Amino acid sequence: MEGKTVIRTDRRGSRAPPGSPPAIWAAFAAQGRWKSWTIAGLLGLVSLQSLAIARLVSQPPEVVLVSAAGDATPVGRSVATDALLKFLADRTRPPDVAVVRFTRDFLHLALGVNSSTVDAAWPAALAMMAPELRARLEREAAEKHLVEAWRLAQRKTELTFEEIVLEERPPGLVAIRARLTRRTGPLVEGAAGSSTDRVQVDLVARTTAPTIERPDGLEVAEWRLTPLPVTDTPPTPRAKAEGGAHAP
Length: 248
Hints:
Order of helices and strands: HEEHHHHHEEEE
Distance between the termini: 131 Å
CATH class of the domain at 95-244: Alpha Beta
Strand order of the largest sheet: 3-4-5-6
Radius of gyration: 38 Å
């Protein structure tokens, strides 16, 4: 029997494929471990940032006092008293002259009806109302076909304001009373069929955040019309604010 020689090579210390340097595979393994730890660290930072943002959002807003010169002084909500918050609410509410102008603009759109402009004026008047009042009047106008009726009537209305009085200003609301004369006639001068009446409008305006569409920060929450007797001598137009002060 022929003799055979067996040579064995111990490769237990190396798991790399034949012909690959062990250092390269060790570097790949270390790089993989660093990637895992980096991802875990980033996830931890994101979680901490989310918690910080949630706490900031849950905190009440701070109060900032702005002087006439434009200097701003921050006041913490914890030290802002009820009197200070009421003072700030009074300072940020619409001034009387803005309320009077808003009332005149609204009544011109809603009551100064003109057959040639009713298609644009009525939607503009609805846009100045609160959502609940707008929905109700829009539904009533659609049921009675008021816009179509005025468009076909070929009439125009001229308003003369006798007075606009700001009666009460509870928080967030303004109670307004306006008296005016309406003269309705045909679009074509010289045609017959003119009429005159007087009405009192009791209007409640709600204060809102000023926007581009509502720069005065007001919207009509409710209104009511009451007929008044027509006088031969027209009263002097005036607008009076709360407390007897006159507004233009």
